[in-house]
From TrEMBL:
Signal sequence annotation: none
Lineage: Eukaryota, Metazoa, Chordata, Craniata, Vertebrata
PANTHER family: NOP SEVEN ASSOCIATED PROTEIN 1, WD REPEAT-CONTAINING PROTEIN 74
Start-end of Basic residues biased regions: 121-130
Positions in coiled-coil regions: none
Protein source organism: Dromaius novaehollandiae (Emu)
SUPFAM superfamilies: WD40 repeat-like (SSF50978)
Protein known as: WDR74 protein
Gene that encodes the chain: Wdr74
GO cellular component, one term: nucleolus
Bias-annotated ranges (Pro residues): 111-120
Length: 130
């Protein structure tokens, strides 16, 4: 049985408060199958709250500024995806040829000498201010 969907309050009406948020909330997204709400704010934290609980269940600092969220319905998003049947087949001969051409091109390039270290600059003399 699916969890209750996120109710949207009428504009200007407060439905619930999210604890632990500092600054403005930029994005708010409900999970499609679980009773979870994710929020991101100006403080660069991604918080995951339960629908029946005000306190954050998870909190992660992200280096970039967030302005929107996208939640997936995949159960195990950390697991690697199964390779496609086309990828399991023999490699394309054209792909091998392109790799050989690229390797040959890199081998034929001349190495670039490192730049010379900068020379010493003359020291400035203080003026007497007369």
């Amino acid at each position: 049985q699916p969890p209750p969907s996120c109710p949207l309050p009428p504009p200007g009406r407060l439905l619930r408060c999210l604890k632990g948020v500092a600054g403005g909330v930029r994005g708010l997204q409900c999970h499609p199958h679980r009773p979870l709400v994710a929020s991101c704010g100006l403080d660069r934290f991604l918080r995951v709250h339960g629908l029946g609980d005000k306190r954050p269940q998870h909190k992660v600092y992200l280096k970039s500024r967030l302005n929107c969220l996208l939640l997936s319905s995949r159960q195990d998003w950390e697991a690697p995806e199964a390779p496609s049947p086309a990828a399991d087949g023999d490699k394309d001969k054209d792909g091998d040829k392109e790799e050989d051409d690229a390797d040959a091109l890199w081998a034929a390039m001349e190495p670039v000498p490192p730049p010379a270290p900068p020379g010493r600059r003359p020291t400035k003399r203080k003026s007497s201010g007369l």
